[in-house]
Design brief:
Length: 148
């Protein structure tokens, strides 16, 4: 009995260690343009009320780093508003596969909103796969975890 109790305790401790070291989609991510391979921005992805949200923290495009970039193509209240601070992901919901899905992934350059699916790269948890859907057409970017 004593050995089996020790074994159970060891399994519980190891389980907590494994799960606490598992990476999360939440944090800061450097967006990488899938066409050029260049960094574009720094996004903070966070959880609020069990849902995923994301906002732009910084523009990283070479030559535009300090510039106040406005959403000139946007409509309504977002027209000519600063891109930094803009929420580009809203109300993502986690599914049973560990992926996050939702209907609001906003691209301020195109002023377009897409459905989305977001998941950690199973081969490298410092990479986030971000897929935007427009009808049956999709595009996937790989974002890189910002350390520190």
């Amino acid at each position: 009995m004593k050995k089996s109790l020790q074994l159970v305790i060891l399994i519980v401790v190891l389980s907590f260690t494994v799960f606490s070291n598992a990476q999360s989609v939440f944090g800061k991510w450097k967006t990488i343009d899938d066409r050029t391979g260049n960094p574009k921005g720094l996004i903070e992805i966070y959880e609020k009320d069990g849902m995923m949200y994301g906002k732009i923290l910084k523009v990283l495009e070479k030559g535009r780093e300090g510039e106040e970039i406005l959403c000139v193509k946007c409509d309504g209240d977002m027209k000519n508003q600063p891109v930094v601070g803009m929420h580009i992901i809203k109300k993502g919901v986690k599914n049973k596969d560990g992926e996050w899905k939702g209907k609001y992934l906003f691209d301020p350059e195109q002023a377009m909103t897409f459905r989305f699916k977001i998941w950690l790269n199973p081969d490298n948890e410092d990479e986030l796969k971000v897929r935007g859907y427009l009808a049956f057409i999709y595009r996937t970017q790989t974002w890189v975890r910002q350390k520190g």
